[in-house]
Amino acid sequence: MEINDFLNGDQLTGRQAATIFFLWLAIVLAAGIILLLFTSATIS
Questions:
Q1: Distance between CA atoms of 18 and 1, rounded to whole angstroms?
Q2: Which residues cross the membrane (predicted)?
């Protein structure tokens, strides 16, 4: 089953869904790195 069949016309297209997913992933990774930097700075 293709992703465009799964996401119907009134919903997101596959490209939009992939863009939103990768933006969300980048935000989560950036937040994790910032949290890691803050915690390692306070521990040491």
A1: 16
A2: 20-38
Residue with tokens 């016309």: 9
14: Cβ contacts below 8 Å, ≥ 6 apart? 2, 3, 4, 7
40-25-1-7 Cα dihedral, nearest 10 degrees? 150
Q: Are 19 and 27 in contact (CB under 8 A)?
A: no
pTM of the model: 0.61
What the block records as the tokens of 24 is: 């969300």
DSSP state of 2: -
